[in-house]
């Protein structure tokens, strides 16, 4: 017997109350679903748009228990959820993506080993636990390289670029490098000389149906996504197809349910052939998929809700010829009246209080139609 569908009127539980949770809740509402947001921060932007909220720590077993019993399906908007929390949730209601997909992708070492094990290109990498291990890894991989904490990294946090030319007379000091990342378990990755950064946002449902949006090109400023463009300029149809088939292989191997994003580097081999190298997997809706709200037939948030509810996936087709998404970081959101006045520009503000530097306050999307 096939599993019962989650019907309109049911409640989607969302762990995390940031802008991603907020946009998932809005998409759920479009389909007549209710949302219950769980987040420790009482000022969470997602609370504004959800009928129910729980303000509690992510390891508060009693609060998690009460939360999970009040919902029909659980999802999350960020991957740094303690594994014990995922277990408590999954013991009572369907958790999508699964606790095991979460465990694989929330640690850079298990994630890279998993992707490499599928025969998919990744940067050369080594586990690094201490200064001696880092010195050895640098000998094996060479420089330049990127040292990253295995867990809790985002927007370039928990990362250190290692370049020979930065070390001066004294040379490379592995102990200082480890100390700057608080001596946490790390991985060292060889630097990938990429032409562009691209991502594939895709969805898979429990029946194994898979649907991917066109790969997008992502430009970062100060390690934070600044601009996404679709279709990705400079990506041939063959490379785009290769990128999508990699995302599919990853989703299938994880037995993934929901939307995921696979971040990749676009590279060119010595023979001049283009290819992609996987950087990381985000087991959730992703900033590089925000353009889909107006730029695709089905937004990534609606697609995620469909996938986790066991509903048929929607069309990922573009609604125009090309799409551009710009993040509004810090005081860039102060420009909202100018953006509102711009024909064809779609403004999204996340309802956050202080516009601190580096904080994602909103985004805007422009869809180019016509010839
Ligand atoms: P991440 O947190 O892994 O997404 O890394 C943040 C950014 O650092 C990426 O978007 C790249 O711009 C850069 N980066 C990370 N890893 C590498 C690498 N192995 N080679 C070159 N650039 C990298």
What would you say this structure looks like, in words?
This protein is α+β, with helices and mostly antiparallel strands. The chain has 3 domains: 11-95, Rossmann fold (3-Layer(aba) Sandwich), CATH 3.40.50; 124-190, 2-Layer Sandwich (Dna Ligase, domain 1); 196-368, ATP-grasp fold, B domain (D-amino Acid Aminotransferase, Chain A, domain 1), CATH 3.30.470.20. It has 11 helices and 17 strands. The longest helix has 17 residues, at 237-253. The chain is globular, with a radius of gyration of 21 Å.
SSE blueprint:
Layout (H helix, E strand, L loop, with lengths): L10 E5 L3 H12 L3 E5 L13 E3 L6 H9 L3 E4 L6 H10 L6 H7 L2 H10 L7 E4 L2 H11 L3 E5 L9 E4 L11 H7 L5 E5 L5 E9 L5 E3 L3 E6 L2 E7 L6 H17 L4 E11 L5 E9 L9 H4 L4 H10 L12 E8 L6 H6 L3 E5 L10 E9 L3
Parallel strand pairs: 1-2, 1-4, 2-3
Antiparallel strand pairs: 5-8, 6-7, 6-8, 9-10, 9-11, 9-13, 11-12, 12-15, 13-14, 15-17, 16-17
Helix pairs in contact: 1-10, 2-3, 6-7
GO molecular function: phosphoribosylaminoimidazole carboxylase activity
Pfam families: ATP-grasp, PurK_C, RS_preATP-grasp-like
Subunit structure: Homodimer.
